[in-house]
Amino acid sequence: MVVGLSIYAWCVGDFATFGRGTPAPIDAPTKLVVRGLYRYTRNPMYVGVLTVILGWAVLFRAADLVVYALVVGTCFHLFIILYEERHLLETIETQYEEYCSRVSRWLPFPTRKSPGRNSAA
After folding, report:
1. How far apart are CA 42 and CA 75, in angstroms?
2. Shortest CA distance to 88 belongs to which of 76, 73, 100?
3. What is the pLDDT of residues 18-40, one digit of tens each?
4. 47 is in which domain, residue-wise?
5. Which sign does the torsion angle of CA 30, 32, 35, 38 carry?
6. In the chain, at which end, N or C, are there fewer CB atoms within 10 A of the end residue's CB?
7. Of 39, 71, 40, 37, residue with least CA distance to 53
């Protein structure tokens, strides 16, 4: 749980200092945050939240919390795909496309450029 809270706090700090905003959609960062944990995954804040939930599951030995983490993770994933990434592509297309080609969505694995991702329309 401490690891998850630390991840979340680090990301909020980067949003405030570098992105000049907060996690709240009404005060979203004005600049794409690509430093700190965002160098390794595009969604470290969500990873931090899921880590906290899984920490609770371990602490309380509760399988229900593992199921809850899966539901929350699925909701996060759908929100990211259906809204967040589309919004970022509309507002900062070139910079976000380049970032996506370098950094994976969830876990810090190297990504490969997909065909057509950076091609002209």
Report:
1. 16
2. 100
3. 998 888 878 888 899 999 999 99
4. 2-102
5. positive
6. C
7. 71
